[in-house]
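User: Could you check the structure of this?
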Amino acid sequence: MFGPAATKPVGAAATRAISEGRWAAVQLASAASDVLGPEQLERVLALRPAEGADLVQGPASVRGQHLRRVLDPVPGSRRLELVLDLWSEVEKHRAGLARRERLLATQSRRNRVEDLLKRRRHADDELILSLLRVVMPGPEPPLADVARWTPPRTYWHGRLLGLVQDAQATTALLRTAVAVTDHGLDEGLARCDKLLRAADGLLPAWVASAAARKVPGLTGLPARPGAYVRDIRRRMSDDKPRDHRFTAFVRPRLACARDFATVVVRTAEELLYEVDDIPGAMLRGWASADLRSWRADVGYSSVRPPAEWGGIPLLTVEVLGQGEPLSQRLAAAPGANAADVEVVGDLLWYADMLDALAALHGHSAAALGPLGFGFPWLDHDPLLPPEPLSPRRDSVTLAVSSAAQLVAIGGVPPGRARAWREFTDGLLASALITEAITGEFQVPAPFAAVDQTAIAGTGLRLRVARTARTLAEWSDYMGNCIAGQNYADKARAGRSILTGLYDKDGLLVVNAEVVPRRPAARGWRVNEIQARFNHAPDHDVERRFREWVDAVPAAPAAESAPDLPDAAPRVRTGPRRPVRHQDGRCAGWSSCRRSPTPTRWTWWPAACARRSGTSLPTTTRSSPAPWPAGRVSRCCARSPS
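Assistant: Sure, the predicted structure tokens are below.
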């Protein structure tokens, strides 16, 4: 399992790992046995993965090949550091993914956004109709009078002020949901008690009660998130025990935080970005209001300090009339308190809510959106697809295979790197990497015509690789060597068609190499087909795909690549110079006779066998190569059988 370098301590460490079920450590040590010494293997076998974490996948032989390719140029003293740091990087990444799943599991599985929007519009309708009835009493005012009526300034002021209050209450719910997930219900609520108290104080009691009042035909959720903040605060303040009833009361209210945040974003877009009914003076008066009381209780988030906040372009300057962003105003007033300078029009309260929503999705903060303008402007879940060739950390196997891919296409392993990220950054910095993923492949017309075609009976769809960048994406996900220089060179020359089979969800399932038959007029055949991590594909999928490839018509004669004859072994015709052993004695040469099977060669140290009087076993190989160093200089012959 661990090669000739295995020792008794290595065997004991492997026995302990197996008895404790730490198979990932055993698999990694087995794959790394060719590049690490015995003492180093003991360190690898002592690794303890988190419970349920599957850090290593695929056959150890393939993983071992990748490790040798990656770590052979690295000094032996640095190899163990890289392997251990790789393990740590993968564990951190997997822990982050697991935390993200736990956070999202706290939210309702049912999307309640549309229900909440209807509930909120009903509340707004009730508000404006109540104002209308004050001006036009009676059961049914004239329609013309209603058309000429303009809502008072207090209506717009109330809606704008409610937008800020709803965003702040939603921020409290989001941060509390994250704290409860990370620290448990009691400690999480205790950590967010000050925040919840500040959010509870935003709404008068009668407003919160009106927002929570049931409306027939609409959702039972309140129209405003502050009602749920008020419920949680009241339940935390009473003397009832915090048992399962307390948990059943609090968690469903925290489970709506994400939906409330989406509603606030939609409302902000409607009020500030799309509606021209609000008087400009009213809008700017609202934007100039301060947030001192809120900041005095809550403060600022560490992920978005006010000294670095530049506002939302166009909106904060042109719509809300903020001449300079908050960061510039603070820079112009050294030593000033940020709460004394910040105003509502800076929209930092809106960014705080999106940062809290991003934290619920496992991110440290919201990121700038792809366009850089328009709502929501900040992306709360920036899950961008990884760049081709970028190092993956989903598993040890994928990380090693992606690094081996970089080496295969020209990356030079840095010898002094001590951390895995530093090591892969050095590989990516090689000048040949950019050249390796550029250039179009020559795709024959028959396969260009069937690109994106469904493969009958498999539920899979074909995609033909047209650039090396596609191969890099495939290899990065599949953990194979399809992006290697050999495959790319054949595809550029038109001697190979590299394909991927995708399922209905757009997930890559199988990679296959298709080559022309000889002669090319006979059509095509599948030369190689593998599933993820070089596992064998589903038998039925493989059979149907081979049948499908057999039915693809041959390429026109003008497009087909020239047939390459099988390479015949070279035969020496001139006299051979005797090769001497290391001790200076002549080794002699054995005779060379034609074999009935020209492609099979038999090797044995004939001269040494004659001199020693012993007969050594022969070794049959498919192509001529020198006998292993240290055994004999170069004794060879074609075998007659």
